[in-house]
Fold each of these.
Amino acid sequence: MQESPPKSPRPALPRIEDFPIRVSDTIRFADLDRQGHVNNAVYPTYFETGRVPRIYDPKEGFQVEGCTTVLARIEIDFLKELHWPGTVEIGTAIAEIRRSSYVFAQAIFREGQCAARARSTMVLIDRATRKARPLPTDLIARLERILLKT
């Protein structure tokens, strides 16, 4: 009989203190589904609330002249139910910096408990050619300021 490969350990749950950027959002009644908890389709909106203000921040943002940033991938782990009423805190950091993209690490917290975590890959594209463009050094420096604390 063949042995199954060992299971890889589950990564530790993030803590809000791991994230240099923290914003809150309101859980709306409209966010609920038939089961009475926040619908899984709403979680990406909470994550967007955490990352978009930093992307477009006038001083520390990630915009580059002649370019735009697009969301190429998002992975979400749903860990706990969220219920109305209340608020969530969204932690945001940079997990990876690549040639023409960067990856956000994010987590949603309610009352100190991690309810979900996500990784979102953002690609810098040239507005004219619509093709990926290498990250300029000044953008890399801004990204490095908010690297995930682990």
Note: DSSP finds two helices and five strands in the chain.
Amino acid sequence: MAFGSMAEIIEKCEKEKIEFWQAVLLEDISERDTNEEESREKMCSLWHAMLESSESYDPHLKSNSGLVGGQGKKMGDYVEKGDSYCGEFVGHVIRRALEMGESNACMRRIVAAPTAGACGVMPAVLVTLFRERMVDEEKIINALYVSAGIGQVIAARAFIAGAAGGCQAEIGAASAMAAGALAYIKGGHGEEISAAAGMALQNLMGLVCDPVAGLVEVPCVKRNVVGAVNALSCADMAAAGLKSAIPTDEIIDAMREVGEALPPSLKETGKGGAANTPTGRKIREELMGEG
């Protein structure tokens, strides 16, 4: 997709009297020299893979390191008691975010949206909406086009890899994509979608990438929860009419600036942040035999 800014997508929507998702769909058709049926078929296959990945979670699996596994089930059991602060819906979003992050660490099939390390954010919100709020599947597919457009703009203007820009580029991008998708499902159009994405990304500005022992497990899995819940809150703010004081494209540019300023130790090298705590270093030594 060739969009270089959120403003460009919104301008196309207003000029051609189409929805955000349609602008992204048309761009995909043009870029890949395909047709609408084939494009939607591809997006539908990604959705079904995401759905299947979420529903095939195995609570008995542990990652090779032993750092993660079974946490999603623990969260689910807690939610079922009916006494959580977040309530049943958000509780299940948290559960699914954990489950998908654990599945990635356990080498199960996942959908990188936009990366493997952030694979839990999108399904956490969309699968929960689909299963518990009975959101129509066609609406979900449209929402995935919305998220794809947002992700493409972030990738074009900044980055989506933790090694390039810190975890703000992975969880931040995923959260922005999910927030925009949720805003669309709520009935939002270009401005609301952009506002939700911008607020979500801004909330996670500066988030470092500091995987303990260099593994995408700690603190990565639980950060998927932060991204998912952040997306929900930002979509609700956008639906309530709140706007991002800073235009979303400028927030993306600022995220790039911050990412470039981060030292290498905080960009997926496993040498700074949580990875460099006494416990983090101990875990690395035990797993990798390194001091």
Note: The chain has a mean pLDDT of 97.
